Automatic annotation (TrEMBL):
Residues 34-156 form the MD-2-related lipid-recognition domain. The keyword Transferase does not apply. Its main location: secreted. One of its GO terms (biological process) is cholesterol homeostasis. This is NPC intracellular cholesterol transporter 2. SUPFAM superfamilies: E set domains. Belongs to the NPC2 family.
Length: 160
């Protein structure tokens, strides 16, 4: 069951895949990978759902794990995929470990085929030792050629 209503899911897709990427990247030096167009090179996102996350920024409690579900369609064929997650802190992308980076073990039936729709499912664990801080989480899915299938961002606040 989703922690976000339809309106919040739509807001994630429209607000944070569009203008937010431009605004966030405009603040200073960073990887520059996640832009409005980035998700459209090898795939198109239909929906992003982070649960539970009833408000923005998402309040992530230390010691808790959050569900991530991304529905996307692929524009390419790929034998596999790998997820990379970063926390953007002070304009620096800090890698966030996730339990399963292999997209083929995260709900995607591989090989990925052009024109097909997929549901990517994973968890975002928030470790107890993480600092209490506001940041931007960036989630990427990379194809077997190193190209970005999708990329999305969401503002979060880690709390005790």
């Amino acid at each position: 069951q989703s922690g976000l209503g339809t309106e919040h899911r739509a807001a994630l897709v429209t607000e944070f895949l569009g203008p937010a990427c431009r605004v966030i990247r405009g603040h200073g030096p960073s990887s520059g990978k996640c832009t409005v167009q980035a998700g459209s090179k090898d795939g198109s996102i239909t929906e992003v759902n982070v649960s539970p996350c009833p408000t923005q920024p998402c309040l992530l409690q230390k010691g808790t794990s959050y569900s991530v579900n991304v529905t996307f369609s692929s524009k390419i064929d790929s034998q596999g995929s790998k997820a990379k997650v970063y926390g953007e802190i002070l304009h620096v992308d800090v890698p966030f470990p996730i339990p399963e980076p292999d997209g083929c073990k995260s709900g995607i039936q591989c090989p990925i085929e052009k024109g097909h729709s997929y549901s990517y499912l994973n968890k975002l664990p928030v470790k107890s030792e993480y600092p209490s801080i506001k940041l931007i989480v960036q989630w990427e899915l990379i194809d077997d050629q190193g190209q970005m299938i999708f990329c999305w961002k969401i503002p979060v606040q880690i709390t005790s």
